[in-house]
Amino acid sequence: MNAAQPGTSNISLGSSLYPNNSQWLSNSGQFAFGFYREGNDLAIGIWFEKIQPQTIIWTANRDVKLPSSEDVKLHLSGEGISVILQDKQGLSPLISNITESVAWASMLDSGNFVLYNSNAKIIWQSFDAPTDTILSGQRLLAGRNLVSSISATNHATGRFQLSMQHDGNLVLYPVNPISTTGQYAYWITGTYTAGDKVSLNLDHNGQLYLLNSTGFYIQNITNQTQLSDNHVYRLTIDSDGILRLYSHSLTQNDSWSIEYSSSSSKCDPLGLCGLNAYCVPIEEDPPCLCLPGFVFMDQGQKDLGCRRNFSMVDCANKNETRYSITDLDGLEWEDNPYSVLTLNETACKEDCLRDCAVKISCFGVQKDSFSKWLVLEDVTLRSYTYVELEKATKGFTDEVGKGAFGTVYKGISNGRRVVAIKKLEKVVGEGEREFQNEVNAIGRTHHKNLVKLLGYCHDGSNRLLVYEYMTNGSLADFLFRSDGRPAWEERIGIVLNVAQGILYLHEECVTQIIHCDIKPENILMSEQKCAKLADFGLAKLLKSEHTRTHTGFRGTRGYIAPEWLRNMPITVKADVYSFGVVLLEIICCRRSVNMDIPEDQVVLENWVYHCLEADELHKLVEDEEVDKTKLGGMIKIVLWCIQYEPSLRPSMKKVVLMLEGQ
């Protein structure tokens, strides 16, 4: 630890600050520590005292705002600095990780606020806990981040981060990136071989560079030899996601100048404009526009994204006259499509109009090919605190489902979005592994027939997952209702939805996934009656070099493949078997086992074989008018899927091809 610097003005124990313009100044008066105002609230931080307008360089507990009241003060004691709300007699530590007694504090001329022990050794300093800015003489060590503010006047946690990674790279990401391998970075130094203890350094002459653990010079980021010594410098990740090096003259009363910028285009930061919006290189700030058919969530904050201003209610009913394709030329769409087809432009438009899940397509990526995207409701997984989710669910009162690994509650996220929050109740042993499986694997999956994971909570012993909320309940609710059967064509559309979702898990996502518990209760229905696979709490992940695995018993009786009971290796063919059972239930609109009907019909599989032999398949659909050939074709798919030997069952790719042929 460093010792106290000579020539500093010490802040003694018992000193206090109040919101009425009092502050602790550095010796030169260049920097100040104390209360500052953000709108109607108070915050605590460090700023340049001699530069106007006020420039905040560090904020304490940036996401906690204090009431704008004179009945609050900062107090320095042997335990550290505390915030005291005098009207409530409340005392809250401003800095919570102090392990030694504090003897005094100093606001240094470097912009560093420091706490010392009785031996004049530093026990805490603001330079070790930066928010969105570092100053000359300050370092960003490996494993640490700068995180942008929401805006220039709101210093709460924003949407972008600068990470000094242990792989030697300095990287800009959206906050909480799905991966830190560089795939989701929008700016990167590319210093992969520099070691695991690289630091970012800003000199007093404005040079910005990377050093390794031995002090070896790796890269000059600003590509400048030397700037002026008569300036102060700060490196800030701004609210727009761009990293900028600023300078300000010590002798002239001018404004901040930009000496370096990580991007020449405002549109480089990923997710700058929020959801369902796109960025254009215009002077407006933020430079955002909504996609056709969408309007801004908040006209005053256009970077919050856009919401749909039309209803999809007729799409599932094939009322295509209500919809059209709008062309937008020259856009770059930076995400992975869920489907890539080789078609001409006219066929591309027709295909998209037929697919209710598609809101965006991109034609011309390659000659005569196009890609389709769902409009994503989120860009990256969000990390929630337990308190946030407790508030979102009003104390976990609205239970909507219960499974083997936890209970699902309905909640409201960010005050406006309905979500399903799965509270895992078995967080040790296998339950803990399931949580890691879901967060790491499902967070990387995007498909129209999979329920979307939006975020997670890993707060102490609490493990929760936040999903999109499916308004029409489960397939079980849809199929086994008492007010009549859903239409045949509607049911077959659901079958194809389910099959395509399983195919994606088996063959198209980054990490192959065996669902292990496919049943109507784990298939949810969207507002447009699009079926989506849910509950990956029982999913078994396979690495690419593996094709099967031994695992403990999983799944639900009636839907599990025979190999579960034979202590055999479990492969993707176990899901194929479960799909066959579900397909049969969809065809017949009844459970695979029903004890309340004639004995010869109790076990659906046995009754199907009997009807097939007797050429009486029409009994399976009762009074429905269903083409006999199509019904027979569907039954043959069922019987192929539920073969006793796994090797005799088809792959889901073959199943999808057969269904599309139907």
From TrEMBL:
SUPFAM superfamilies given in the database record: alpha-D-mannose-specific plant lectins, Protein kinase-like (PK-like)
Record's keyword terms, sorted: ATP-binding, Disulfide bond, EGF-like domain, Glycoprotein, Kinase, Lectin, Membrane, Nucleotide-binding, Receptor, Serine/threonine-protein kinase, Signal, Transferase, Transmembrane, Transmembrane helix
Enzyme class (EC, first level): transferase
Keyword hit for rRNA processing: no
Domain Protein kinase intervals: 394-662
Its membrane topology: Single-pass type I membrane protein
Domain of life of the organism encoding this protein: Eukaryota
Domain Bulb-type lectin, first and last residues per copy: 8-128, 131-258
EC number(s) recorded for this UniProt protein: 2.7.11.1
Residue numbers binding ATP: K423
GO molecular function: ATP binding; carbohydrate binding; protein serine/threonine kinase activity
Protein name, as recorded: non-specific serine/threonine protein kinase
UniProt keyword Transcription regulation, yes or no: no
Pfam families hit by this protein: B_lectin, Pkinase, S_locus_glycop
GO CC terms of this entry: membrane
Reactions it catalyzes: L-seryl-[protein] + ATP = O-phospho-L-seryl-[protein] + ADP + H(+); L-threonyl-[protein] + ATP = O-phospho-L-threonyl-[protein] + ADP + H(+)
Subcellular localization(s) per the UniProt record: Membrane
Chief location of this protein within or outside the cell: membrane
Gene3D superfamilies: Bulb-type lectin domain, Phosphorylase Kinase, domain 1, Transferase(Phosphotransferase) domain 1
